[in-house]
Design brief:
Layout: H1 20-48, H2 67-75, H3 78-109, H4 115-125, H5 130-143, H6 150-174, H7 178-186, H8 191-202, H9 204-220, H10 223-228, H11 237-240, H12 252-283
Length: 288
């Protein structure tokens, strides 16, 4: 008759301690990477505070003022460009996330003719460089009389962001249990009601990632805005910055100040969405 052996508790191996040399090398590498990352931004801020011609002597740490910022805000159409960019970026974000979320949910939950070709189409569209799309999109917007309009630029940016966002949200919706949808149908909700009232609140991390991506895509895009916006009152920030570069002289001090002001909204959007970004990026790559 065999006797049961007592179960021995698992012993956790002590965590290996790094040597001082390895720790110093690690911290040195982290500091070097931080310096490399921060230096371009710090240099732009430094140049923006050196006046109109301070960029010519960037090693001098004297003569700081806010003349570039006052000129940008008071003597140019920067505020008009800023407002145009806000309209276009917010419009592209809201419309793009709405389309991508509904498309991703439909592909995740429903099986219909063309299900797989649709997702492959989303993937193939991402392979084309933006420069190749300028001419066909220009012709399409011209036929629809949407050139030099907010609507045309918003639709253009959605055509860029929606395929990627739909792929990401499809992966995120795959991680949401199907039982939630079934419970919604038992309670009498329509498919859209189930999506809007039950799934969307659970998908906030994924929506935050796609919203941030859509906003950044529209906020800093140059090529389409330059070609599709012809009147100065419709310029976005990316197009307006080009007015500081002429054939004879470039106002690098003004460009640096404008670049600093442009980064502020993008940084604010990032800080608002950052607590959802990691969860949204990781959840879209797993299924459980």
């Amino acid at each position: 008759m065999s006797t049961a052996q007592p179960v021995r508790p698992l012993r956790h191996r002590p965590r290996e301690q790094r040597s001082r040399t390895a720790s110093a090398a690690l911290h040195t590498a982290l500091i070097a990477a931080s310096v490399v990352s921060v230096f371009p931004v710090a240099f732009i801020v430094f140049v923006s505070l050196r006046g109109r011609d301070g960029w010519q002597e960037p090693t001098r740490f004297v003569g700081f003022d806010a003349s570039n910022y006052s000129h940008i805000l008071g003597e140019t159409k920067f505020l008009t460009w800023f407002g145009n960019s806000v309209i276009v970026a917010l419009g592209a974000t809201v419309l793009g996330v709405l389309i991508a979320a509904t498309a991703g949910y439909a592909v995740s939950r429903m099986r219909f003719p063309g299900h797989r070709p649709l997702m492959w189409t989303f993937l193939v569209v991402q392979m084309f460089p933006m420069a190749v799309l300028i001419v066909p999109l220009y012709n399409i917007l011209g036929e629809l009389e949407l050139l030099d309009s907010y609507t045309g630029l918003i639709v253009t940016y959605c055509s860029i962001s929606v395929p990627f966002c739909a792929w990401m949200l499809k992966g995120y919706f795959d991680t949401v249990p199907v039982e939630i949808d079934e419970a919604g149908r038992v309670d009498g909700l329509t498919p859209f009601g189930t999506f809007w009232r039950l799934i969307v609140p659970l998908a906030r991390p994924g929506l935050a990632v796609t919203g941030f991506y859509s906003f950044i895509t529209a906020w800093g895009e140059v090529a389409f805005a330059t070609q599709f916006m012809s009147s100065e009152e419709h310029y976005t920030l990316a197009v307006g910055l080009q007015t500081f570069v002429g054939q004879q002289k470039a106002e690098w001090g003004l460009m640096a100040a404008a670049a600093v002001l442009i980064t502020v909204p993008a940084a604010l959007v990032f800080f608002v969405a950052q607590r959802h970004l990691v969860a949204g990026l990781t959840a879209g790559g797993t299924k459980g």
